[in-house]
Amino acid sequence: MENTLTEFDPSTEYTKLNLGPTHPATHGIFQNILTMDGEIIVEAEQTVGYIHRAFEKIAEHRPFYQITPLTDRLNYCSSPINNMGWHMTVEKLLGLELPKRVDYMRVIIMELARISDHLVCNSVIGVDTGALTGFTYVFQWREKIYDIFEEICGARLTTNIGRIGGLERDFSPACIQKIRDFIKDFPAAFTEFTNLLERNRIFMDRTVGVCPINTERALHYGFTGPNLRATGLDYDVRVMNPYSSYQDFDFTIPVGISGDTYDRFMVRQQEMWESLKIITQALENLPAGKFYAEVPEFYLPPKDDVYNNMEALIWHFKIVMGESEVPKGEVYHSVEGGNGELGFYLVSDGGRSAYRLHFRRPCFIYYQGYPEMIKGTTLSDAIVTMSSMNVIAGELDA
Amino acid sequence: MSEVNNTFLLNELQFQFADSIYSADEPYGLLTIELDPKQIIPVLNFLKVHPIIHMNFLTDLCGIHYPENKGKELGVIYHLHSFTENIRLRIKCFMPNDEPKIDTITSIYGAANWQERETWDFYGIEFIGHPNLTRILNVDEMDYHPLRKEYPLEDQTRTDKNDNYFGR
Question: Which of B86, B115, B135 sits opposite A365 (nearest CB)?
Answer without folding.
Answer: B115
